[in-house]
Amino acid sequence: MASTMSSAAKRPSRLFRNLSAKIASVPMILTALVVFVGGTLWTVLYSFTNSRLLPRLKFVGLDQYERLWATPRWLVSIENLAIYGVLSLIFSLVIGFVLAALLDQKIRFEDTFRTIFLYPFALSFVVTGVVWQWLLNPDFGVQAVVRSLGWESFAFDPLYNSSIVIYGVLIAALWQGTGFVMCLMLAGLRGIDEDIWKAARVDGIPAWRTYLFIVLPMMRPVLITTLVIIAAGIVKVYDLVVAQTSGGPGIASEVPAKYVYDYMFFAQNLGQGFAASTMMLLSVAIIIVPWAYLEFGRRR
Amino acid sequence: MAMSQTLATDGPRGPKPRHTFSKRNIFIYGTLFVVAVYYLLPLYVMVVTSLKGMPEVRLGNIFSPPLEITFEPWVKAWATACTGLNCDGLSRGFWNSVRITVPSVILSIAIASVNGYALANWRFKGSELFFTILIIGAFIPYQVMLYPIVIILREIGLYGSLSGLVIVHSIFGMPILTLLFRNYFASLPEELFKAARVDGAGFWSIYLRIMLPMSVPIFVVAVILQITGIWNDFLFGVVYTRPETYPMTVQLNNIVNSVQGVKEYNVNMAATLLTGLVPLVVYFISGKLFVRGIAAGAVKG
């Protein structure tokens, strides 16, 4: 009786239980509720208004979205993001996996090779973009060098050719990011039991088939995580394009994130910016929700 | 079939497999070597271009080593290159970046480690919900939250200041760091925590006296993650600061992509190397910890 009394006196209300932990979590709670939930809802709400220089709550229905999808620059951005996204997903997964598999052959100098493949990942997209702008410069870069070797008609000038500029961006992005994918894949490969390999060898299965039909399916969790990380990064691509091409030539290498920034902070057309960022949110949701459902829904 | 049976039953017998120059090894090392050269080329080109004078850059090809080494581009990039009206080079951006990165790293890690500790050891009603929101928030494109944060910062009078940017970095570093710390603290033996509780230690004293000293490795990982991440940031820098307080990445972009004046590629490359230097040094010093950091931050995400 006495003990329950004293514990009741110590805990007057549920709210004050664990008080220090709650106080310590205030920044997290504020971030989660005010910035992440509040900010997202705010932007979605204001995407239905005709805000221009300043946000105003004057609703115009889906006008901003209709205008957005009628703007050529936005359509180019979406097309670029689709090409860039699909190709960088495929190439970074394939290259990352092949490099990881090569490094996993108990080779010498493994650390050296890994250090070399991963160092671009430590560099910013701005640095990456600027370097590749220089390397792909048609007058001095790769094209000029190949021509000076005697192949006069060689043409590779993605940064000045609007039909292939997005591939120039892709090359730079792959250089920067594949090392990271390789590291994730290598972690996945190392997590696979040695005995699987021994068993496959005993059964006389060639190595490439073991990789394709036994090891890869076993790496499913790592693959899915990698996929989600790459995909979330693709939607955010911004600094690389700004630094490497500034969206040019013309509007040929525009991406959605750049559209949002330019409309919000340069064109003073907030409504368009909000509508475009809401579309970005939607596209991420299309990727994330099924994954989260598969990953976490099943456990319950 | 017969082959595989002998392998299975006989154990190690027969001729020793040749190691050094088998076809397989040549293929593996050959491929790795070619790929390594490809990965290193941009760094090499950056270095050689930054050491040439402009006449030599215009004449030669980008891969040829400099005939006459000059450090002038480096001096110019650091001290006199122009962005807009400011002609004091990248040094301004460098110091801005230092003044942004140091407090951001400290603040974000302090907040996130306490969060992770509370989530791992002091769960309260709703704590998991906030954590879930935080993790989902990590996937929301930043563009969605850019403008609401502008409004918040303007309301508290920090828009355009370095402190404002520090807060922004702390906010967006929170999801991954909290996850990192939560998982780490949850992996520590619970008996330790319980024993401290029995001895009457409270929230903060357990954190400071027991958790902190035991989690130095994860703090190092977090510091590496944050230094490179914040130093390399461009978007937040360009949105939440003014030209006088631009971080290095933004200034680099402005120097390289400014439309007026003659393009000085050697100065550009020196500026690029200067900007990439801090994360590169962190990367080469930290070695395996860097890999652990990104893997820990990513795989569990």
UniProtKB/TrEMBL annotation, chain A:
Its predominant location is membrane
Concerning SUPFAM superfamilies, the annotation shows: MetI-like (SSF161098)
Keyword set for this entry?
Answer: Cell membrane, Membrane, Transmembrane, Transmembrane helix, Transport
Span-the-membrane segments of this chain are 21-48, 81-103, 115-135, 164-189, 210-235, 274-294
Q: Where in the cell is it found?
A: Cell membrane
Its record classes its membrane topology as: Multi-pass membrane protein
Q: Which InterPro entries match?
A: ABC_transporter_permease, MetI-like, MetI-like_sf
**Domain ABC transmembrane type-1 per the UniProt entry, residue ranges:** 78-293
Superkingdom is Bacteria
What family is this? Belongs to the binding-protein-dependent transport system permease family.
Q: What protein does this entry describe?
A: Sugar ABC transporter permease
TrEMBL record, chain B:
**According to its record, how does it sit in the membrane?**
Multi-pass membrane protein
Annotated ABC transmembrane type-1 domain ranges read 94-286
Highest taxon of source = Bacteria
Q: State its location(s).
A: Cell membrane
Q: Carries keyword Metal-binding? A: no
The record's section on Pfam families has:
BPD_transp_1
Note the Gene3D superfamilies from the entry: MetI-like (1.10.3720.10)
Where this protein primarily resides, as one coarse class? membrane
Its keywords, alphabetically, are:
Membrane, Transmembrane, Transmembrane helix, Transport
| PROSITE patterns the record matches | ABC_TM1
| Membrane-crossing segments per the record | 26-47, 100-120, 129-153, 165-185, 206-231, 267-285
> Which InterPro entries does its entry note?
MetI-like, MetI-like_sf
Similarity comment? Belongs to the binding-protein-dependent transport system permease family.
Q: What is this protein called?
A: Carbohydrate ABC transporter permease
| Lineage of source species | Bacteria, Pseudomonadati, Pseudomonadota, Alphaproteobacteria, Hyphomicrobiales
